[in-house]
Amino acid sequence: MSETHAPTAGRLALDYVEPGMDLTDQSQVTSSVPEGVTAKMLYRDIVHIAWPSLIELTLAQLTSMVDLMMVGQLGPWAITSVGLSTQPKFLLQTVFMAMNVGATAMVARYKGAGERDKANTIMRQALLITFTFSLISSVLGFFFARPLVAFMGGQDDMMALNGGTIYLRIQMLGLVGFALTSTITAVLRGVGNSRTAMVYNTIANVVNVILNYILIYGHFGAPRLEVAGASLATIIGQFVAMVIALISVINGKFYLKLRFRDGFLPDFDAIGKIVKIGIPAMIEQLTMRAGMIIYAKTVASLGTIAFATHQICMNIQALSFMTGQAFGVSATSLMGQSLGKKRPDMAQAYCTRTRRVGMCVAFILTFVFLFFGRFIVACYSDDPAVISTGARILMFVAFVQPFQSSQFILSGALRGAGDTKSIAKIIFLTVLLVRPSLALILIYLFHWGLEGAWVALVCDQLLRTMLVWRRYKSGKWKIIRV
Fold this sequence. Notes:
Structural class: mainly alpha
Number of strands: 0
Strand content: under 5%
Radius of gyration: 22 Å
Largest sheet: none
Helix content: over 70%
Number of helices: 15
């Protein structure tokens, strides 16, 4: 490689190849290193995008874990309260989070094609969509909080029902701020800038943890708010993140620039492009939420202690999601930018190497969960039954790590290509049909208890990984028009 092609700060390996490859010519598309770049450059690009996302997502999940640990000191009822509000909260976020998928994919395409003005238009329209839907969701969530928590199984424990209702209502007060931040994060990831999101979300998490300590237990003269204090600390942290996120795009230092004088009137062409990718993603998310709600209700029927144990293990597993999701961010951004430049060979080369790095990290997590599971669960609760059962459940979490990582990364790549319909179909089959059905059979027919629910989860993960892999290997993502 000549000196004129030496890597420059801020540039991708993609910038050193010429655009214009025939997307329909399969003979040109391989996973080998394309001419003009090296494997080292590809790995550098992957890690450059992934490491800030990994830190951001991991810190966010660690904050969630600390939330649950602090709340857990109040008793299993408090853990259950937070757990019962989790799926309704995610359900109410579905529409705008799905549209964010479309925004990320389109911004990445326009970045790859060098069309900055169109990328900025997508950002403004995405913010308009997010504000509208998050405002509607927040109002609905606030007024229907109690029925939603009761529907999840809270009617069996009055303390958990009351606590979950309070927690969810406070979350709804901060939903618009969280939603706008998530959209800014999505478009910044589309242009490959994950570092800025890492900064403002890290600050928000620090604020959250500090306020948790003050508001949950009533330290430094503050009132003891318990579960309400944990929820309030979360939305204050999210508001801080929103302010910093808005400043970052208003400054325009990172390719995207938010200019209020350009207005926020609907641009139906841009909205149509976001919606085209976002609608299947929304169906995917709604399907996933429906499946997760059925699954969670099934587990909740096992009782407060079992559900508290389940919630702890789900919280721990969510931490392991962060590595797959972080490398999935890389795959989404690099896939979209590569296809925007009409270089599917680069897209495939990036995806192959992203999976390799993700797999290495997954095996490390497998080791951690196998040998330190009991200690991790004990950080949440000192109940012997919870610790013993939770340690066994983490064996399942350890087993699925490599499959889970591959699935997240390839799903991210397919979303970056705009292939959200296939992901929606896979989620419908696995999360809505396989997981809850199998959980019902194993819990009620075979009487396997909580372990039966987690066997169902493992089966879901294995099937989903296989189907996502097959879709990616088909190569149909190379010719999708967005």
